[in-house]
Amino acid sequence: MVPWATLGLVALNVALFFFPIQPPRAACLSVQTVWVQGQWQRILLAPFHHLSFSHLLLNMATLFWLGRGMEVEVGSLRTGTVLTSLALLGGVLHLALNKVLEAATGHPWYREHCAVGFSGVLFSLEAMGRHVELVPVATLATGGIITTTRWLCLLEWLALAVVHPRSSITGHLSGILAGLALSALLFLLELP
């Protein structure tokens, strides 16, 4: 089976990297640009723009690996629908989380923090795990700690925050929350 939805999303991301609709800084997602300035198109643009070739390469390799596995399980139409839903839901949750954190801390960084890239969607897929049989789950044992790939995304999120603190910590966390929310919704609807 050819994973058309995954290949289409990879092609879209690559095309927009070389021929962006907006420069990444003008496509990134923040409370300031979306809620304050009303630039709602950024919710659609941000996931498909990347800051560097290595950022794009890492995200697209991961998308191909996770997306292809999902497409084999549920087909191209459902994969495309899930990935698009996760991109939109993750963006909205990113804005809401940053707004709540700004209100709680009083720090303007959360209002101004601007994020781009597809990694939030990838964290969503990992968080969904095998819960709805969309993403393969493996067990990992390290130093006496046993976890599944469903919860491994939290360890990856923390490691990435330490190793690369300029990455979108709230964007990745929003992706995890979007994945958990969508898997809970699908579970409630009893969809495989």
Write the topology of this structure.
Blueprint: H1 4-18, H2 24-27, H3 31-36, H4 42-45, H5 53-74, H6 76-105, H7 109-112, H8 119-128, E1 139-142, E2 145-148, H9 149-163, H10 169-189
Antiparallel strand pairs: 1-2
Question: Explain this structure to me?
Answer:
This protein has a two-stranded antiparallel ribbon with strand order 1-2. It has ten helices and two strands, in the order ααααααααββαα. The chain is globular, with a radius of gyration of 16 Å. It starts with a helix and ends with a helix. The model is unreliable at 132-136 (pLDDT under 50). The longest helix is centred in the middle third of the chain and has 30 residues, at 76-105. It has one domain (4-189): Rhomboid-like (Rhomboid-like fold). It is mostly helical and 192 residues long.
Principal-axis shape: globular
Provide the CATH superfamily: Rhomboid-like
Measured by DSSP, the beta-strand proportion falls in under 5%
What does the average pLDDT come to? 86
Order of helices and strands: HHHHHHHHEEHH
Going by CATH, the architecture would be Up-down Bundle
Largest sheet: 2 strands, antiparallel
Instruction: State the secondary-structure class.
Output: mainly alpha
As a whole number of angstroms, the C-alpha radius of gyration is 16 Å
Q: What is the class in the CATH system?
A: Mainly Alpha
- Total tally of structural domains: 1
CATH fold topology: Rhomboid-like fold
Q: What is the first-to-last residue Cα distance?
A: 19 Å
Which stretches are poorly predicted, pLDDT < 50 over at least 5 residues? 132-136
Q: How do the strands of the widest beta sheet line up side by side?
A: 1-2
The number of helical elements comes to: 10
Helix content: 55-70%
Number of separate strands: 2
